[in-house]
Amino acid sequence: MRKNRFYLLFIAMGIASIVMLWDSSENVITPPKAEPAPQIPYAFAENAATRYFNDNGVLEYAFTANLLEHFRVLGDNRQPVDEYTMVDHPHFTIYQEDTPWHVESVDGKLVRSSEQIALWDTVRIWQEPPERLPGEEAPAYREASELTTEKLDINPVEKVAYTDEPVKILTPYGVINAVGMTANFKNRKIELHHKVHAIHRIPEDRSLNE
């Protein structure tokens, strides 16, 4: 009798195993993964604007954004282990002795531990052309040039920017394509890193059409 009970127990365990394997959906074998909780900003600001002055009171750069959302990631002891700010439509105006530079994108991210800001999605860099003097014609070289890329890291305090992504520069003299770029706005120097390909053209002589 006792031997039969052992047989019945083994059979029941076998049937249960077969049923579990037959119904071997991931819900049985692997517990469902919990969806990560949505991040809620710790603070936010709409239509943000700020200006940065150096120690001599000279305006270095201005910054605007449609929306700033500050996030804090808490650790096990409820202390923040990471803090960052997401930026919607950031725009920098970087001032130099001549006309200012403009840098903007659709999205950006500022990490608290760094002065560097990551920009992505339709990044544009351009410089306003010099003002025309009274009675002066508008030659092509006074037209604005524009650089576009998809990702860019910028340090507005040091006035430098860097990317490993493809870049495209449109100027009155043609088009330049390259991969990777370092821009130093202090000395108006843009260094292209790899695969530089340029197409030059003669600027239009507008004086002939006026």
UniProtKB/TrEMBL annotation:
GO biological process terms held by the UniProt record: Gram-negative-bacterium-type cell outer membrane assembly
Pfam families from the UniProt entry: LptC (PF06835)
Subcellular location: Cell inner membrane
One Gene Ontology cellular component: plasma membrane
Alphabetic keyword roster: Cell inner membrane, Cell membrane, Membrane, Transmembrane, Transmembrane helix
Gene Ontology MF: a single term: glycolipid transfer activity
TM region(s), chain numbering: none
Membrane topology field: Single-pass membrane protein
Subunit annotation: Component of the lipopolysaccharide transport and assembly complex. Interacts with LptA and the LptBFG transporter complex.
PANTHER family with a match to the protein in the record: LIPOPOLYSACCHARIDE EXPORT SYSTEM PROTEIN LPTC (PTHR37481:SF1)
Protein function: Involved in the assembly of lipopolysaccharide (LPS). Required for the translocation of LPS from the inner membrane to the outer membrane. Facilitates the transfer of LPS from the inner membrane to the periplasmic protein LptA. Could be a docking site for LptA.
Family label: Belongs to the LptC family.
UniProt protein name: Lipopolysaccharide export system protein LptC
Organism: Teredinibacter turnerae (strain ATCC 39867 / T7901)
Lineage: Bacteria, Pseudomonadati, Pseudomonadota, Gammaproteobacteria, Cellvibrionales
Underlying gene: lptC
